[in-house]
């Protein structure tokens, strides 16, 4: 079995413009040898999950503001099922 570095997609979903934390995570992952795809600020759930599918990632990390997880995460999970993303 061939070993490869894990691929992680990080996204800032919603209107929060505070990206220092996700950028620190991205740098830490890269320093550990993990391949990181950072989609940037103000992403939609749809754009995030289509990027996960296109980039063939192993992990999706979503950074959110306050209670946004109450609406964003159910949508992320719905799209995961709808797009057949069973590898994340």
Task: Provide a quick synopsis of the model.
This protein is α/β, with parallel strands linked by helices and 88 residues long. It contains three helices and three strands; from the N terminus they run βαβαβα.
Task: Walk me through what this model shows.
By secondary structure, this protein is α/β, with parallel strands linked by helices. The chain has a single domain (about 5-80), classed as Cobalamin-binding domain (Rossmann fold, 3-Layer(aba) Sandwich). About 40% of the residues lie in helices and about 15% in strands. Strands 2-1-3 form a three-stranded parallel beta sheet, with helices on both faces. Helix 2 packs across helix 3 (about 70-80). The protein is flat. The relative contact order is 0.25.
Task: Please tag this protein with its features.
3 strands, alpha/beta, 3 helices, 17% strand, single chain, Rossmann fold, three-stranded parallel beta sheet, flat, 42% helix, 88 residues
Write the layout of secondary structure elements.
Blueprint lengths: L6 E6 L7 H12 L3 E4 L6 H11 L3 E5 L5 H14 L6
Overall pLDDT metric: 94
Number of domains as seen in the coordinates: 1
Number of distinct beta strands: 3
- The first-to-last residue Cα distance is 20 Å
User: CATH topology, which one?
Assistant: Rossmann fold
Residue ranges: pLDDT <50 for 5 or more in a row? Answer: none
Tell me which CATH architecture applies here.
Answer: 3-Layer(aba) Sandwich
What is the succession of H and E elements? EHEHEH
Strand content: 15-25%
Indicate the overall shape: flat
Structural classification: alpha/beta
**What is the number of helical segments per DSSP (H or I, 4+ residues)?**
3
Helix content: 40-55%
Q: Kindly report the name of the CATH homologous superfamily.
A: Cobalamin-binding domain
Largest beta sheet: what is the strand line-up? 2-1-3
Assembly annotation: single chain
